[in-house]
Amino acid sequence: MRNYSPQPLPSSMWKKSSHFIAFGFGSGAAPFAPGTFGTLMGIPFYLAMQSLSHVLYLILLVLIILASMWLCDKVSKEIGIHDHSGMCLDEIVGYLVTMYAAPHGILWIWLGFLLFRLFDIWKPWPINYIDEKVSGGVGIILDDVLAGVYSMIILRILSWI
Predict the structure, then answer these.
(1) pTM over 0.90
(2) What's 102's DSSP letter?
(3) Which of 42, 81, 147, 160 sits a CA distance of 20 to 30 A from 134?
């Protein structure tokens, strides 16, 4: 399970681009709630991708997920801490999953943000199982991908109502 107590940030976060990216482009340096700041960092990425067709968005999203799994695995091994609390790339990825095929507009952006944070913190089954049992970059990213899928489903249902 992820350690939510403050962990010292590795100095490499500011020196190595791979570490900077894994730490949510610096959002993981937030003194509190780094996952929330990491999710906020996902919003500009979503805004840059929202005009893509659903097919292109999905292709890019799959590539981002796979690259993030590899990168987080690499960085966690280099710093010697599995899923450091400041590693927020997983929140960015989870938010991008949440917003797949979402309606455009500020209301949907914030609703997606709130839903993703809810599922990422609550961790209903099987998210909690993956968070606890799956190691490496796959585990770091996959629990947030599933939180994003749950959030995306709720967001889609709300958009149809």
Answers:
(1) yes
(2) P
(3) 42
